[in-house]
Each structure stands twice: as structure tokens, then as C-alpha cells.
Design a protein that fits this description.
CATH class: Alpha Beta
Strand order of the largest sheet: 1-2-3-4-6-5
Order of helices and strands: HHEEEEHEEHH
Strand content: 15-25%
Number of strands: 6
Structural class: alpha+beta
CATH architecture: Alpha-Beta Complex
Radius of gyration: 20 Å
Number of domains: 1
Largest sheet: 6 strands, antiparallel
Helix content: 25-40%
Number of helices: 5
Distance between the termini: 34 Å
Shape: globular
């Protein structure tokens, strides 16, 4: 991403004195990827990574809370079925249910469709809370709470 220093636009405008100046600001959105999933998941308390079914899985106190399927374009996370169905209906471009997970409390999220890394962090932390034992929930009450709660 290009670094815009204070005064850089002013000096360009001064050089072009008498000419019309058009400045366009763009925001480059960095899509979360599998490495972001790994980094964030492993930053959560008592989390470990284990390869299962040929893909990385993330576990809290031995209980799985996230996986990164082999194409690395999505994640699977724990989600209560009622909430999962609402998520999929509300944002089908972002969330879906894999056929083999339909009977379980899991949902998939497309990494490219996430708003930003903060949304990825919230999703992973929420899934972590669903898998974590009470002793960890008591020790880390702030993990997984949506900002402002």
C-alpha cells in the first residue's frame, strides 16, 4: 500500500499550479487469509493446532473450534444451529453450511467475504467460547465478547 505523507498532496498541487488537480483516495482492503486464521486462533488462550482430515484444526483444551479446509478460502467454526441458519439466510455470500456438517452446530465462512480481520477475530473468538471449558471462560471472560457488551 502506498504511504501518503503529510504535505505530499500539497507539494503535488503546488507543482501543478494553474492545472486542475484531482485527488482520489482509495482504501486497499486486505482480505483475511489462512495465516491470519492461524495467527488469531493461536493467540486465544489454551489453543493448539492439530492436523486432522488433512487440514489444520484449532482446539481449546482439546476441543475443536475451527478448521481451515484444504483450499484455504474459508473456515469452519462452531455456531449454534439456530444462529447458523439465521446467518446463512442473512448473509449467504459470506456464510454457508457444508452438506456433511448440516447435522452439526458448525458453519462455514468465506474469508474473502469477511469485512476485515476484526470480523475474523470476532468469529474465531465466538467459536472459541463455545468450545472452551468453564474454567477458561471464567479465567478469560473478555474473549469473544462483541465490542460494547
Amino acid at each position: 500500500m502506498t504511504d501518503v505523507r503529510p504535505g505530499a498532496l500539497r507539494s503535488r498541487a503546488q507543482r501543478g499550479a494553474g492545472r486542475r488537480l484531482s485527488v482520489v483516495f482509495t482504501t486497499v482492503r486486505s482480505m483475511p487469509d489462512a495465516e491470519d486464521v492461524r495467527r488469531i486462533a493461536l493467540s486465544l488462550p489454551d489453543t493448539s493446532e492439530k492436523i486432522a482430515w488433512g487440514m489444520p484444526t484449532f482446539r481449546v483444551a482439546g476441543r475443536m473450534f475451527a478448521t481451515v479446509p484444504e483450499d484455504e478460502t474459508s473456515i469452519a467454526v462452531r455456531c449454534p444451529k439456530e444462529e447458523r441458519d439465521e446467518l446463512v439466510l442473512a448473509e449467504p455470500a459470506k456464510f454457508w453450511i457444508a452438506d456433511h456438517e448440516a447435522g452439526f452446530a458448525w458453519v462455514r465462512a468465506r474469508l474473502a467475504a469477511l469485512d476485515d480481520e476484526s470480523e475474523l477475530r470476532d468469529i474465531l473468538a465466538d467459536s472459541w467460547r463455545q468450545a472452551a471449558p468453564p474454567r477458561l471462560l471464567d479465567a478469560y471472560p473478555e474473549v469473544g465478547l462483541v465490542r460494547g457488551e
